[in-house]
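Researcher: Let's run the pair from yesterday's discussion. Sequence first, then tokens, for each.
Model: Starting with the first of the pair.
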Amino acid sequence: MKGTSMTRNAVVLYSGGLDSATTLAIARAEGFAPHTMSFDYGQRHRIELDFAARYATQLGAVEHQVVCMDLRQIGGSALTSDLEVPKGGPEQGVIPVTYVPARNTIFLSFALAKAEVLGAFDIFIGVNALDYSGYPDCRPEYIAAFENLAGLATRAGVQGEDRYRIHTPLIRMTKAQIIRRGLALGVDYRLTHSCYDPTPAGEACGLCDSCRLRLKGFSEAGAEDPVPYVRREP
């Protein structure tokens, strides 16, 4: 193992949203030097990238990198096509159309490549399997499988230099617990954006799955969400 956690580099997947900002704060609190990575993949809510670029270092990143690709060429999601973003709340047991095919696999693959270059063995991702939209690539079994893959698919892993760890500090937390943890760590949630279908002015719609989960979390945490919304449902 190279060094201690107090000196170790880590790659943090950071979208500019609530969960990834909290994950970044946790990585810092655990003593890692976080190198953040965002993705410009053709998402309709591209405003999240502006938040990520503007606030990454303010929230504790050593450096911030944006990887560009165009998943609109593949489509299959309301976030990367002309499909309408659902506004009626999630349908139980159905993976919503806001799921982007293989997104976390793609993102983690880039993060793994970055980690290899840095000589890092720690990757943080803010997936959650409690208050979430049912995406298959947010589940603990998926993360465990990718962690195993990382050891098989990399030079450092094969040579036994160290073991890659995919940190998912939020995976078994409710949204309210995530928010409380972030507030305790000093996260300023004004510097985050979560909406899947924001207005041109950047206001959150208040009705998409992401907005609903965020508003529910703040309500249950007994805190006020500081970002502007077009509509806030009770």
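Model: Moving on to the second of the pair.
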Amino acid sequence: MADDTIDVTPKKPGLRQRLRNFADDYLPRGNWFRFAAVLFALYAVLVIVVGFIWSISPAPFDVKEKAAALTPAGRGEVTGAVTTATLIGVVDTLLEKPGGFLYNDRMPPGLYLDNMPHREYGVLIQSRDLGRAMREVLSRSQSQSKEDPDLAIGEPRLNFQTDSWLLPPSESEYRKGLKHFQKYLDRLVDPESPDAQFYARADNLREWLSMVNSRLGSLSQRLVASVGQRRLNTDLAGDAGATQATAAPGEMEVRTPWTEIDDVFYEARGSAWALIHFLRAAEVDFAEILEKKNARVSLQQIIRELEGTQAMVWSPFILNGTGFGLLANHSLVMASYLARANAAIIDLRDLLQQG
């Protein structure tokens, strides 16, 4: 006779049923996908808004006020104090602005931001050049003299790689460098520390301006290359006996990739922003030299040209129209400002060389 007994033992729920039970207990009933989508949308909006805030260019600062803030009362007018304090102020602004230093970010919104990191790079390049000039030229009376110990440590810190986000992050190295520049500034304005010096001489100023000259010339060429052009090779022009490592064509086409056009534009914009501050500081520390050479107005004209690069960009995109086309070409406009400033720097260097 068959056994008609019914097994009433409750069965263990399967994986699918357990997942459903978890969703019913801990997620909004019937709308948990919609809930997740709303959370993601709110996060995306927050990231975009923060990205806009972080992309705002930092405001300029007064170089004399910065020197007064970083030195004891009444010592901000010591020769070299304004230039040193301005370098510290520019790099500190780079690190302490909203969002901090973004070039090495690996998380949004810094990860997707593009314009501000390249602007930071332009500021950093000019700061490195001035730091090197201070270490090698401005703080030394001659080529055989001993370099300043704080500048010898601080200057390499500013040259630390820009994209390191961990072990150590770039920001920590730059801050360490600023501490040594601050120590140099403290000794510079201390009348009992004659070992720290800043020599405001015409030849020293020319040496730094030659670095600026090369940077602006390179930026101008990269900006002009946004539309592409064929150039004759003039690398060996002017010297019949000159040679080069490898052969190069007599004519070449130079064009900036379209994905890098806005990168070069904002790098130039950041470079000009830093240079405006450094030249204003030089106007203070090299005042006697500029007056003697009747060159103050020449320096002021360079600053005036560079200030034009900081005008508001009304277009949401960096346009790359042809030179005489219907659309603007922001790179060519930027290049025109830098080229005029660069030509004025060449004239200023020649003026400083005269007796």
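Researcher: Give me one sentence on the second I can quote.
Model: The beta strands are 229-232, 251-254.
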